[in-house]
Amino acid sequence: MNPLLDHFNNQTYKIEVSDIRKFDERVSPIKNILKLTLGEPDFNTPNHIKLAAIEAINNNESHYTGMSGDSQLREAASAFMQKKYTVSYDPKNEVLVTVGATEAISASLLAILNPGDKILVPSPIFPGYEPLITLSQATPIFIDTSVNGFVLTPEMIEDELKKHGTSVKAIILNYPNNPTGVTYTRAEIKALAETIKKYPLFVISDEIYSELTYDVEHVSIAEYLRDQTILINGLSKSHAMTGWRIGFIFAPKELTAQIIKVHQYLVTCATSISQKAALAALTVGIDDALPMKIEYHKRRDYLFEELTQLGFEVARPNGAFYLFAKIPQEFIQNSMDFCIELAEKNKLALIPGSAFGSAGEGYIRISYAASMEKLVEAVKRLRNYTQENKSNL
What we know:
Elements: H1 19-27, E1 34-35, H2 47-58, H3 71-85, E2 95-98, H4 100-112, E3 118-123, H5 129-135, E4 139-144, H6 154-164, E5 168-174, H7 186-196, E6 202-206, E7 229-234, E8 247-250, H8 253-267, H9 272-282, H10 289-309, E9 313-315, E10 322-326, H11 335-346, E11 348-349, E12 351-352, E13 363-367, H12 372-391
Parallel strand pairs: 1-11, 3-4, 3-5, 5-6, 6-7
Antiparallel strand pairs: 2-8, 7-8, 9-10, 10-13, 12-13
Helix pairs in contact: 2-9, 3-9, 4-5, 4-8
Cofactor: pyridoxal 5'-phosphate
Keywords: Aminotransferase, Pyridoxal phosphate, Transferase
Pfam families: Aminotran_1_2
């Protein structure tokens, strides 16, 4: 064994590669596998954005931007947030351009957490937060929202704060939520804000799916809790730009001044060419998400109805592009085993709910960022699996 293995930061041995990625790699070699696994739009980046990137390349826009990002892009991002969600940020010192929302989360958590701190994490939730909390030698306090239709309540927050007191430094919000697709009404957000503002808590609000909501408007908690909120967003989901790696942090200037230090040493700045493409996305393409949203809405309705008929209890999603479905009692309840068997027997890959924390055990996540043709075939394979296994019980 290499003796240097004993010299790593010992926190690295406490984290693992995401179960989403591990499961996807495990089932990918299966011949003719149909995957509804990763959270990536099946649409291509709009042409006008690609043309803006090509123009930037031809104009030799290949140098460093400032640490905070291209000034025009920060102005456009500020205007976008004001128009869409009525939240106002000064582009000069309250907007950071990041390498995707992932880096925005990393920079924010590393900036605020000290060893021994605790942070409230509603669960089930995207698995990218916990490892960063662990690396910071802080402790996640998971709040099981499955008992309330995956909606966090003020009472849940109050209960945890009574248990853990002043050691709680922050709370993470992710809505529309990955994996459930559930989001919050204005009244629910206002109620959460009223509770949180009584305490000296940071709010890390990951709103990357804000442009993809159905039957309800997206309301940023920053509208009610600006001084405490580190608002995270980006273009991966709204503009089908996952590979371009452009995200944003919006926060009061006092908070931004500290976060930018971490951001600088992590990445220096986001890619200059991608930033020029992002400028086109937020100006000419300010409503690029609308055609995609219409299609996602149709797919959501189709899958919700079909899975309900198959006996799955589904949290009705009003955002993002996921369904989170409870495995019927007559089938394997270990979600990893269920998904492995489904992939091996019927060549359909869905993500085990356990990948999103213990509150997700017994569920499966289905990504409907796929064509209707693929979704129809997926339902067929899932129906065949349920019929075959019911007959064997």
